[in-house]
Amino acid sequence: MTQPILDTLDALPRTPASDVKKHGWRGVMQSVTHHGKVLVTNHNAPEAVILSTAEYRAMVEAVRAAQAQVPATLENLRKRFDERLSVLNEADAGERLRALIGQAPRLEGKVKAGSGF
Known about the structure:
- The chain is an alpha+beta fold.
- The chain contains three helices and three strands, in the order E-H-E-E-H-H.
- Among the domains are: 10-51, YefM-like fold (3-Layer(aba) Sandwich); 53-88.
- Helix content is 53%, strand content 14%.
- It has a three-stranded mixed sheet.
- Helix 1 links the parallel strand 1 and strand 2.
- It comes from Oxalicibacterium flavum.
- This is Antitoxin.
């Protein structure tokens, strides 16, 4: 299934609540059928979004797919974190840290931070 494009409220096709009253449910659903989704406004303020069932299903599927990736992403992050911290478990870690702290910084006029400086 293709990933839905999640529009901001400003990008959605709009219909005022008065049109919903004037044209009835059938008129609103014609717009939903044409656009897939419609923002209902009241005095130009967003009030509700009406979605087609296809649009709703696509959004639910996108959320499920994103949720399925969370455990793998967290495991990858945990692994990278553990790899970076593993040097602290080495026998000479304390000595290396003391030697590093004892050195004068060599910044050469630049700010350096993190592993990618």
